[in-house]
Amino acid sequence: MTGWSKHTGMATAIDIENIDTDQIIPARFMSAPRSDGYGGFLLHDLRFDTTGNPRPNFPINLFPAVSILVGRRNFGTGSSREAAVYALGDFGIRAVIAPSFGDIFAANCINNGVLPALVSNKAATDLIVWLSGRQAQLNLNIRSRTISFDDQTVTFTLNDASAQKLLNGWDDIDLTQHHLSAIAAYRARRAQMQPWVFPANETAG
What we know:
Blueprint: E1 6-13, H1 21-24, H2 44-47, H3 59-62, E2 68-70, H4 83-91, E3 95-98, H5 103-111, E4 115-118, H6 121-131, E5 136-141, E6 146-149, E7 152-155, H7 160-168, H8 172-177, H9 180-193
Parallel strand pairs: 1-2, 2-3, 3-4
Antiparallel strand pairs: 1-5, 5-6, 6-7
């Protein structure tokens, strides 16, 4: 996974609350090989009618080249399926902006290089109104936690650990490995103070 600090891309709004992970990728598509890509399944049952025809007014059918989505509260609520983020990433989505996210969904986003940009309800509403019926360019900056458009700038919330992972292209394992020397030093200290904690056939090193 490649890290990134800034992204300029086209955005559109999906003005629907509580979009859950089963809407982001319906479970029936998750048996498809990951190597084939999940982008075509993104928001499938919202994008297509029961006969498989695209719904003409759905935002990402109108604007398929967008890389940023703006949504309402509880985006990514529901099950913990990581495939929901695979579908976003494979479609080309680099960031989702919303006033709240499902916790596990947000963590899966970070571990797969997709920014879950947490904004206020007012900021989300203002962006949705500004984007209504169209696509437009947004500029994202992870270091400054800002979204800029036209002559406006709004801030988003992102904790430092998540920012570090996105900036460096790390997942949880990468982040842990970055602290291996500190972990080894802790183990060595604990082995001296509490040697009975370690199995007899294991050393602290």
